[in-house]
Amino acid sequence: MNYRESIQLSKQRGLSIVELLVALVISMLLLTGVVQVFFSSKQTYASNEAASRLQENGRFALEFIAQSARHAGYVEAANSMADTPSPIAAPGNAICIDSNTCSSDGDSNAQTLAARSDGISFALQPRIQNGARRDCIGASGSGASAINDTDIIINRFVIIDANPNNGELHPSLGCHSRNLRGSWVTGAAPQRLIDGIDALEVQYGISTTNDKSSVNQYVSATRVTQLGKWNEVLAIRIAVLANSIDPVDPPAPARQYVLLDAEPISFDDGKARQVFTTTFKLRNTF
After folding, report:
1. DSSP 3-state percent helix, strand, coil across the chain (nearest 5)
2. C-alpha angle with apex 221: 215 to 227, nearest 5 degrees?
3. Distances in whole angstroms, Cα of residue 200 to Cα of each of 20, 106, 172, 179
4. Using one digit for the tens of pLDDT, what is the confidence trace for 214-273?
5. Does 3 map to a domain?
6. Is 244 within 8 Å of 267 (Cβ atoms)?
7. What's the pTM?
């Protein structure tokens, strides 16, 4: 090998600065694409998780209420000590003990959404589950508040506001139960069932033509009281507003939600929300 050939070989060793810069630019472009795909996948996963949680909250909330709604007004044939109660505990019938057990409309002038939401109460003889008769949160009570085989209870469903001081960061669907003998099964304060439920609205199906086999109008609790038709309620229509618990990315746009005949509700906190509505026919009506 002569001197000129050795010089040419030495010049071909390694990369030039231009080649390094070109390689760096190409690498950065590829890396940018990978990062974009990663963040896009992450956002899609978070959105799907939020949607799943949202759907789960709404469906479970309606299912908890449905369990009492389908059983409302039921008394076992062997229970000769109890008269058949009206399915809905309301101001117009004898089973409603006080404002803590009556079905009622929310206070439209209240400051909190929980207070503006409706409350719905069902009267029934609870079935035996796992060896005991249980209320809407699965409790059987103890001592004087224990549910006996001849007892009728009222399951009342309400919205419980968030209370950060107690570690309760989200509004929830809650319920509590009262024995018609007067004692609360698990205490007077409603117990949380499902987090992420902002509001509850209820309408009552009645017949204005005195046809007890069909509903031709759904009205508020106040209207049922005015018409004196609590013992003639044939069905109920329930709507809940569920949220995703945490804000989604990108944040959900500000918008209004309408539940049945209630005033529109506005939110701008970045959470995903959805209204869930269903109708139950009261089975044990006469």
Report:
1. 30, 25, 45
2. 65
3. 64, 9, 10, 24
4. 888 999 999 998 988 888 889 999 999 999 888 887 788 888 999 998 899 999 888 889
5. no
6. no
7. 0.82
